[in-house]
Amino acid sequence: MALVSNLPKSKVELHIHLDGAVRPSTIYELAQKKGIDLGVKSADELKQLIYIAVDSPVCLTRFLQKFAIFTPVLIGDQEAVERISYELCEDSARDNIVYSEVRLCPHLLSDTSEGRASKEGMATPREVVVQALRGFERGEKDFNVKMRLILTCMRHKPGRNIIKWSQEILDLCIEFKGQGVVGIDLAGDENMTEVDPTHVQHIAVFQEAAKLGIKRTVHAGENGTSANVLEAMDDMLCDRLGHGYHALDCKDVFGRIVQTQMHLEMCPISSIITGSVTADFEEHALQSMVANKASFSVSTDDPVITGSTLTDEYNFIISKYGLTPQDIMTANLHAAKAAFLPEAEKAALYANLCEEYGMKL
Ligand SMILES: [Zn+2]
User: Fold this and answer.
1) Which CATH number goes with the domain that contains 83?
2) Domain-located, residue 233
3) N or C: which end of the chain has fewer CB within 10 A?
């Protein structure tokens, strides 16, 4: 991939999953310590086992299965959650990310659907949130980066009471508002929605979040249709869309996105790898966004699987799809405007980027 020299230095990232951003070396070390057999003989082998190349896309289900390889090492481990959060601060700062909103489904790392530890000593969902925030607090100081948490609800999870999870997640968003948690999210395979009996209840959770002043983002139009995008906007009252590519399939939906400046968190490499969009569709989506002055940003989503940094993502869309460094700066300014920070902090972030880039939106 050709490297572009005049990329913006300071960056904002709005869509990255904590468990999708772990270091293979940390997972391998923890597995060794705990006597968990990952079926590999080194951290590098583990890295290769998790990695999916952008030119060999899979499907979202297979992509999500990669998490099953390494999350058992993290589940219920408070110290590990603090450590991976801290390490993400270091990794983000190394790529000159100045502000990042990191997603986390606390129940997935606590292995409980009941809001309390399933085994003695295992972290509860609340403790997972506390530890993630603790890791960020330590990392922010050491690496001069600002990190905030978005708590993720899951669309489906066989055998788990996920609507209970979502209600507990909303409670955690309220409890930790102003202390590092800035919003709520919904993730998972959109194509399972029709067989998901909790679907309507999730809409209710998001409407309640809106009433309580919790910012909302929804994975929609990733591997699902433009109807899902409409539902996220009209029923779930989202402030931003995770991915949102398939809004492009319907002229009216895309028109509304442009007109209302609904922000799309685009994750170019990950969306190709998950088979949510083809490389050609990705090109069409990004170029349409730029041509129509839509509000979008660029993120890595799950860098442990894609193997990409945010700088890699920028290089990819510039060299492959003809976007310019100017488009990337615009995307970062849009990200600053769409951040879930309090207005004054958002304005300061925006002003700093404007100064560095020598531009305004
Ligand atoms: Zn995502």
Assistant:
1) 3.20.20.140
2) yes
3) N
Task: Choose among 114, 144, 149, 153: nearest CA to 129.
Answer: 149
- Look at the chain and report how many structural domains it folds into: 1
Is 231 a catalytic site residue?
no
Query: Is 53 inside any structural domain?
Result: yes
Distance of CA 149 from the midpoint of ligand 1 (Å):
13
Residue 360 within any structural domain of the chain: no
Residue 5 lies in a domain: no
| Per-residue pLDDT reduced to its tens digit, 232-279 | 999 999 999 999 999 999 999 999 999 999 999 999 999 999 988 899
Over 90: is that where the pLDDT of 112 sits?
Answer: no
Task: Report the separation in Å between the CA atom of 152 and the middle of ligand 1, taken as the mean of its atom positions.
Answer: 9
Q: What is the DSSP string of 166-231?
A: HHHHHHHHHHTBTTTEEEEEEES-GGGGGG-TTHHHHHHHHHHHHHTT-EEEEEESSSS-HHHHHH
Helix (H) or strand (E) holding 318: helix 310-321
Q: Which of 82, 190, 222, 313 is catalytic?
A: 222
Ligand 1 centre from 358 Cα, in Å? 31
From ligand 1's centre to the CA of 81, what distance in Å? 19
